[in-house]
Write a sequence for this structure.
């Protein structure tokens, strides 16, 4: 069995070493143009050349949670695309979102500004009952985020394409329920997969349906957000601000208005990083299960886009 690793912008060497140690009966190598055919591949943003050359691939394992970049390639219809179930990302995502929600709810950003100016200030405590958090996308990461928010006693709403039933979460499903979900959510956390249907879904129309003083936390994909609409709604006072971890262009260009906007917090796509050892163990387990003819979790439906 031959496993190849093809990363764009990342060194494959640590992954080759870890995978070879975890799966000694397999041959593991980093891909380069003209490399021998492989049975399975672990990828991050591979070029079309890789797909065209590796015609014998059975499975394509993506090391990130989103597979939108893969599905834009011309893939053979028989090739299985597999996303990681968790690999240590869900707890990181829960940490990030809870931090962002609490920072906004407790107005710690305002306290930071005041203390940097040498000002001792006080803000009236807000009521959690008025700060319902809407989690848009209830996959593995979204479910973990929703459960974590409940620990801090925020009302939690959830939105998904198909119906979900999560304890303690007011669930909405389908496009017809999106307006009600938005209207009920003071803070909106976007964890939707990026598909043709969800691209630009956070625009003037949808973001305007958030309550006055609403707040956006985007940890999914930059292309979900129409940037000009977000800035306009913050500047006209409808939205209180945003915490953004993902962007249409990454790294975020130095001249981009998000950097300097006083009500927008920017982080460099770091909300949930793939943990190598956890990922390797999961991938090895899935390859072994496939070899035994057993079903695996994480198979991507190209039609749905996730």
């Amino acid at each position: 069995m031959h496993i190849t690793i093809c990363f764009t912008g990342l060194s494959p060497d640590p992954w080759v070493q870890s995978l070879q140690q975890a799966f000694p009966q397999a041959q593991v190598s980093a891909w380069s143009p003209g490399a021998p055919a492989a049975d399975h591949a672990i990828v991050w943003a591979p070029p079309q050349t890789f797909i065209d050359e590796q015609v014998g691939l059975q499975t394509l394992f993506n090391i990130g949670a989103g597979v939108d970049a893969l599905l834009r390639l011309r893939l053979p219809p028989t090739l299985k695309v597999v996303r990681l179930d968790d690999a240590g990302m869900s707890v990181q995502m829960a940490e990030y979102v809870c931090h962002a929600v609490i920072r906004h709810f407790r107005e710690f950003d305002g306290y930071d500004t005041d203390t940097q100016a040498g000002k001792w200030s006080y803000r009236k405590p807000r009521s959690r009952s008025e700060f319902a958090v809407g989690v848009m996308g209830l996959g593995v990461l979204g479910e973990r985020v929703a459960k974590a928010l409940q620990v801090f006693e925020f009302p939690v709403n959830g939105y998904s394409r198909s119906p979900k039933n999560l304890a303690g979460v007011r669930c909405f499903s389908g496009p017809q329920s999106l307006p009600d979900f938005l209207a009920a959510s003071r803070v909106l956390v976007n964890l939707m997969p990026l598909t043709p249907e969800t691209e630009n879904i956070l625009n003037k129309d949808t973001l305007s349906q958030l309550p006055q003083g609403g707040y956006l936390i985007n940890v999914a994909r930059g292309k979900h957000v129409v940037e000009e609409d977000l800035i306009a709604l913050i500047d006209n006072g409808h939205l209180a601000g945003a915490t953004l971890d993902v962007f249409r262009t990454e790294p975020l260009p130095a001249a981009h208005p998000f950097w300097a906007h006083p009500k927008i917090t920017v982080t460099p796509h770091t909300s949930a990083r793939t943990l190598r050892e956890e990922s390797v163990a999961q991938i090895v387990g899935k390859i072994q299960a496939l070899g035994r003819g057993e079903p695996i979790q994480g198979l991507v439906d190209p039609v749905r886009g996730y």
About this structure: The first strand starts at residue 2 and ends at 7.
